[in-house]
Amino acid sequence: MAYSLTKINDAVRSDPKGFVAECDADFNKKIDRAAQKIAENHTRSRIVLLSGPSGSGKTTTSKKIQARLEEMGIQAHAVEMDNYFQTVDPDTAPRNRDGQIDYESPFCLDMDLLNRHFKMLDQGETIHIPKFEFARQMRSGVMSSPLRLGKDEIAIFEGIHALNDIITGKNPNATKLYISARSNVVDDEGGVAFKGTWMRLARRTVRDAKFRAWEPKVTMKMWSSVRRGEKLYISPFKDNADIMFDSSLPYEVSAIKSHALPLFEQLSPEMERYEEIGHLLRSYPLFETLDDSYVPDDSLIREFIGGGIYDD
């Protein structure tokens, strides 16, 4: 679907609080439908596979689903698949066309261990979830976390490769979700005023700046690799999903504008992919600004701008 720029601006000007509440209510209906689907399937499989590209809001979405399931009497455990990365061996690591280590590749994951753990969990056995230290690019030597699922318990495995055929082929009964910001904002002539892809880029740029102290140029330097990885390793497998989840919010461009615009304005026209930044810089002035105070603390947007109840 697409959102109307005119309707967004009218709503932000006339009733920002009511507009945000309406958008979040619609988002929570998606959460309810996803939780219901998982609940209906949990007797067939205790595994939920949740995938989506960078900036999709996978963390908040999975936590919201987790909370809803618990209200339904199903205990849900979130597992980050990033912890299944293998210690990087320069001699055997997958590489891209430029000869650099391809950190976006699914073959950086310990697929054998993952699939063994899926089977063990479905059989009621205890697994020990590893921990990966990204700073050192190696699996931690500390004691891993144990997990065993009871009768009404499930595990939500969240990661960009969760729907890869290597995983879904061996877990056909798992409930599978694909999450992304899938809606554009269009103007009165039907032209695209803001792409869903730009929403994800803005989310990631703001989050990187706020929580990782990364300058925008660092995020943009990585964005080309991230987008390449999405096209090769994520998007081709989205049709494996049982549920396609649109994580975009009609108010988000207006809400994130005051955070994102100053960051994008720091970027130099000489840098790679600046054409995309140029579109963003021209698009943001089209939107009314929504003050942060209207964004509730359980909003998905809080994952990126901070101040949310799901912040670690």
What sort of overall outline do the alpha carbons produce when their principal axes are compared?
globular
Helix coverage percent: 40-55%
* Strand line-up in the sheet with most strands: 3-8-2-9-12
- Number of β-strand runs: 12
Structural class of the helices, strands and pairings? Answer: alpha/beta
Explain what the structure shows.
The strands form four sheets. This protein has a five-stranded parallel β-sheet. A three-stranded mixed β-sheet has the order 1-10-11. It has a two-stranded antiparallel ribbon with strand order 4-7. It is globular. It is α/β, with parallel strands linked by helices and 312 residues long. It has ten helices and twelve strands. Helix 1 crosses helix 2, helix 2 (16-41) crosses helix 3 (58-71) and helix 6 crosses helix 7. The model has no long low-confidence stretch (mean pLDDT 92).
Summarize, please.
With 312 residues, the chain is an alpha/beta fold.
Question: Notable features of this structure?
Answer:
about 300 residues; alpha/beta; five-stranded parallel beta sheet; 12 strands; about 40% helix; globular
